[in-house]
Amino acid sequence: MDRRRFLRNSAGTSLGILVAPTALGLLTAQQQAAAAPADAAQGAAFVDSYSTNTMADLTPEGNAAVRILTGMNRVWHTGGSWNTGSPLMADLLRANVRYCVRTTGQRTAAQAREAFIYDRQHQSYAVIAGLGPLADLYRAGARAVTSITTAPDSTPPAKIDDAVPAGAPAGSEIGPGAVDSELGQVVALVNTLRGPYASGNPAKYAYRYPRPWRLTEDSAVVDTGATDALGYPVYASDVVVAPQLLRQRSTSPADDGGFVSGHTNAFHLAALALAYAVPERFQELVARAFDLSHTRITAGMHSPLDVVGGRTLATALAAATLADPRNAGLKAAARAQAAAYFQAKTGTTADTLYAFAHRAPVTEDPYADRAANAEQVTPRLTYVLHRGGRDVPMTVPKGAEVLLETRLPYLDAAQRREVLRTTALPSGYALLDGPELWGRLNLFAAADGYGSFEHDVTVELDAADGGFCAADAWRNDIGGPGGLTKRGTGTLTLTGTNRYTGTTVVAAGVLAAASRDALGRGDVQVRGGTLRVDTRQGALRVHGDYLQSAPGTRLELTIRHGHAPVLTVAGRVTLGQGAQLVLRLPDARALGEELIPVITGRTLQGEFAGVTVDADGYRATPHYRHDGLAVRLTRC
């Protein structure tokens, strides 16, 4: 018997594949074919129809959430009941269950306890830890509490639910907190994103993909006919549910689908709501949601496909809710309230709150290391999914740009869409190439700015607007044929290994280069403002020509040792009348009175109007050559 085509019900009887009528909200074979990624343009955009995500209609034609998840139809054929579906991509579904088997088999006792906590704790409360140094301040200001802080070592005798613990301050509430608190608008925003149209249950009933502990490795459900000590049916699956959660499971498999993970949906919705209100911790909150979602797999309660589906749904729901004109006042009030509250409590300003929010070491803030966060998040964007099939160009879903509205406030809507497009996952992943391509968005990467300059990009940061408008950093490795023009009085820092080939122009304010290839592969022109160079890893490389033309323009170079130039230019170096050079010496004691190479190029034309040292007790004497500049530092 081919177990991929015939499954068993709880009585052990073989059942053929059933196709349910659309009246029950299940997908016929014709609907599955019609719901291929090519139909992304059919029907209203998700942000305009997200309120159809209710139990009233479970079809892709009538339910926007079911529709955007129809990439699942490439993977799984929904049956007429919970245990009569069949694989369409058997290898993928086998890998999906094997991942669960491996993960739950290698789970430590501590991980099992953690999985229990985040299964039973209110999801919105669990996300708060992503605020790092601001988390305790948030809990106090929002009066947010939980009764689930520890886990038993074994199976508790009954179901456990979160509640306001004894002794909590008056007016405390579980979840994100109380709407009449000092952070009431932020609480209301979290609750709104998790509102009446935000459930994953319609998708669960529509797709009827079982939980992993009910699945075999070939994605067939096999009931052994036996029951365990708790009275649950025993399935032929090697997925081991955390012992603390055995009595927390549903006893009704028909009402307990795995795809999508409801907890994952809730984690990401709460994280994106807080990230909108507190963008100083945007990326860390996204990483927190990924961590929490992974505990669903560790627990044995969900599979990677369930978690990917939950994230996809939450991304779309968060964008739709934030883009809804009815919520415009609330989201603005939440952002303003959070900024005012945290600045008052920390003694910071809009320009210094970010530093405070990132002041804790990794021992106190698990999300303090951006590289470590990326290492955890990146594989969890796709888990067991593998690339294949045709190339589908990325089209950013309507309204998605609102997700970056507070994180990249100095960009317009079209630019934020381009950030989302150029940081999105590539095509070819089954499930992610569904209608509108919500699953391909990578918000963790998007928080670090552009992934590519497909055309010339002009960005304007104004210091007077404060926060990210005063100073921001783009950390991605930026490619593309376009260039960058920096305008405005604020500071933009580039830290990636950039490969874009267009011209970099500093027109105003400060452009800071913090890596050897920060300025890409093209020419660099300083026509206004300041180019600041502090690479910490060797000379900044300009692969084309370097031009500093206007009076008053500044080149600031940080000299960390005196053995190699700070700026190397493959082409010509041209210095116009009035150009200034400022040398920064972070450790002047390591430098003697010596001739230090500063700039090298194929040729050098012109001279700086002034060369100054930003360190007490030193002056600089420039020594020009036909191919560069060296500076002799002497003590005053």
Automatic annotation (TrEMBL):
N-terminal signal peptide: 1-25
SMART domains with a match to the protein in the record: acidPPc (SM00014)
Keyword Signal in annotation: yes
Xref: InterPro entries: Autotrns_rpt, PAP2/HPO, PAP2/HPO_sf, Pectin_lyase_fold/virulence
Entry superkingdom: Bacteria
Entry keywords, A to Z: Signal
Phosphatidic acid phosphatase type 2/haloperoxidase domain: residues covered: 185-322
Name listed for the protein in its UniProt record: Phosphoesterase
Organism phylogeny: Bacteria, Bacillati, Actinomycetota, Actinomycetes, Kitasatosporales
